[in-house]
Amino acid sequence: MSNVQSFEALVENMTEEVWQRMRQSVELGRWPDGRQLTNEQRELSLEAIIAWEIRNNIPLEERTGYLPQSCKNQGPSPVAQAAVIANAKELKV
After folding, report:
1. For residues 13 and 52, is the Cβ–Cβ distance under 8 A?
2. Bridge partners of residue 77, in order along the sequence
3. Domain segments of the chain: what residues?
4. φ and ψ at 67, to 5 degrees?
5. Is the CA virtual torsion 76, 66, 16, 90 positive or negative?
6. Residue 67: left (phi > 0), alpha (psi -120 to 50), or beta?
7. What gap in Å lies between CA 93 and CA 90, rounded to an integer?
8. Which residue has the higher pLDDT, 76 or 12?
9. Residues facing residue 30 across a β-bridge
10. Can you tell me the distance from the alpha carbon of 52 to that of 9, in angstroms, rounded to the nearest whole number?
11. CA 42 → CA 31, 70, 74, 77, 93, distances in Å?
């Protein structure tokens, strides 16, 4: 099984509880047992979190890394929209 297939299987089988724990671990820089995340673990976990959020149609404003717009009457910035689209294409979701 390739790394891409393993990653996709991980995201597909991830429960909401695992997503929440992984998200908290990335925020704190530590696993629930107190061990520190390596840079590689943080990067891969963040990719899995974002892919899970896209697959599970989490509202944009609730997703990891969401930054609210500075002006309420404006829509999402073109840069933010392009980033979301690029991530979705890259993660093939």
Report:
1. no
2. none
3. 3-91
4. -120, 120
5. positive
6. beta
7. 8
8. 12
9. 36
10. 11
11. 10, 28, 32, 27, 20
pLDDT band at residue 65, thresholds of 50, 70 and 90? confident
Give alpha helix (H) positions in the chain. Answer: 3-13, 16-28, 39-55, 78-91
Query: How far does Cα 23 stand from its chain's mean position?
Result: 8
pLDDT of residue 35: 96
Q: Which residue has the tokens 């599970």?
A: 56
Identity of the amino acid at 7: F
Are 48 and 22 in contact by the 8 Å Cβ rule? The answer is yes
CA atoms within 13 A on the CB side of 1: 8
What's the CA gap between 14 and 20, in Å, rounded?
A: 10
Of 58, 57, 77, 78, which Cα lies nearest the Cα of 68? 77
